[in-house]
Specification:
The chain is of the alpha/beta class. Helix content is 48%, strand content 16%. The chain is elongated.
Length: 296
């Protein structure tokens, strides 16, 4: 681990209707960071709260407060924090009291070897809502396949990330709750070093959790596909091409029995070839874009 004096850390705390917990959360953060002897700043993004969060935050000393004029979304608040940060490492820390400041030292211990250290909520009081479990399972299965990596926790909000790398992906990040998911996938697909640290969390409190809607799951799924199209299109095109080719072979077998080559069989063969070569073309374009981004 680096000497604590050489670590400089920007803590980004997104806030939306968290007046009951945000002051306690920030004060605990300040106490922990001072105790660790880390050069730091705490950036609090009030994302258009409609409760008393703004008034509460105005009374807290030692923070950089940025107010959104209206609610832009969880991801938008995080991006605002990143763009206004002045240090090399970014720590995302939710304001609803679920994360424990004492976990920060465990994250920092790994910064020499990893570009992203994300929380893995394996214990404590974290229980996934029953109605959301099928959707979360589907997202996890799709994400694991597309990145070819078993992700233990896809969207934990507690994460430590190297800013200069994260900024390369900000244009891909959504403004909603899916930013944690898409940032994880972006780092994994671009072969960055990612570590998942088991953490315990407290029971979620505050108002922001009520804004998570069922459609967010579908939006996240579409974002996953968009992200994979950016980094590794063949993970999508090749299976589609293969399925079309197998179906074409099945049709061909029936055609041989009836001694009649159908238009459907010809169409399926042509479609499988076209999809495969479109995938190759998309993969080459994605590789060129990554190379250009890496040079910038």
């Amino acid at each position: 681990m680096e000497n604590n004096q050489t670590i400089n850390l920007s803590v980004v705390v997104p806030v939306y209707n968290e007046s009951q917990k945000v002051q306690q959360t920030v004060e605990m953060l300040k106490k922990e960071l001072i105790g660790l002897g880390i050069e730091h700043e705490i950036i609090v993004i009030n994302d258009g709260s409609t409760d008393d969060s703004k008034e509460v935050l105005n009374k807290i000393e030692g923070i950089k407060l940025i107010n959104h004029p209206y609610n832009k979304g969880y991801g938008a608040a995080l991006k605002t924090g990143v763009l206004n940060s002045g240090h090399d490492w970014i720590l995302f820390f939710d304001s609803d009291g679920q994360h424990r400041p004492e976990d920060i030292k465990n994250f920092i211990a790994h910064i020499n070897d990893y570009e992203l250290i994300a929380g893995d909520r394996t214990g404590g009081k974290y229980v996934r809502p029953t109605l959301r479990k099928p959707g979360l399972w589907l997202l996890r299965v799709v994400a694991n396949y597309l990145v070819d990596y078993k992700i233990p926790d896809l969207n934990c909000g507690l994460r430590l990330v190297k800013k200069n790398i994260l900024k390369n992906y900000l244009h891909l990040m959504p403004n909603g709750f899916s930013m944690s998911t898409t940032s994880t996938l972006a780092f994994l697909k671009d072969k960055k070093n990612v570590k998942f640290l088991p953490i315990e969390i407290n029971k979620r409190e505050g108002g922001s959790k009520s804004t998570v809607k069922p459609r967010d799951g579908f939006t996240t799924l579409m974002l996953i596909f968009r992200l994979i199209m950016t980094f590794s299109p063949l993970r999508i095109f090749f299976p589609v091409s293969l399925i079309l080719f197998i179906v074409a072979l099945i049709f061909l077998a029936f055609d041989l029995i009836s001694i009649n080559l159908s238009d459907s069989t010809i169409f399926l063969f042509i479609a499988s070839i076209l999809v495969f070569f479109f995938g190759l073309l998309a993969d080459q374009i994605a590789a060129i874009r990554r190379e250009i981004n890496n040079r910038q």
